[in-house]
Amino acid sequence: MNRLLLILLLLSMPLGNPLAQSATPFFDIELLLFERTSPNAGNSEAWSSDTRIPFQPNVVRIQSESVAGYRLLPENHRQLSPDAYTLERSGRFKTLAHLNWRQPGLSKSRAKAVYISGGGLEGTVTISLSRFLHVDFDMLLNRFSPQRGEYKTYAFNEHRKMRSGELHYVDHPLIGALIKIERYDQPTPDLPDTEPQEGMQEMGSENTNNPPLETEETPSD
What is the model's pTM? Predict the structure, then answer.
């Protein structure tokens, strides 16, 4: 390839892969929420009388189309389906919600609260990034109480700190959660092939009019 053409190509390229150097990483989240079916579950707990879902200013309903970088993923991306099946088959648990999505890793002040509802459960889960990943559940479960003969509301407010690639279990007297967060590596675009143009001198051929270029070595990190 002509040396001048090579230099122009290198100068026109961004410094490194722009996707790889993106300041905002992305993560794939899978969340399985389930309820303990025992009628006595949670009876020994002293529940808070405040059963209001905390106000979240940045709530997003995830869907197949990206909303602020949050996007629902296909069911065939799920890894916890066998776990959901095992829990259901035991007869001791009932699945409330099972979903997976992709989102940017943002600070707590910028992260969106993902709205979730199903099986009497309603609320949000917020996943933010600092040195670690942080997961905050702010949810309510409406459940029929045989002792009272009426529905009762239970709060599910939990926080977990975790690393990507780990499977975490969030324990609760009535509700359980399995959550796994993995970093999403965005694909690297292939660089276009460049062929030497006709009439241009190949690199390495003799040319007394063009002395060799001297380049500075890039120090290693």
Answer: 0.72
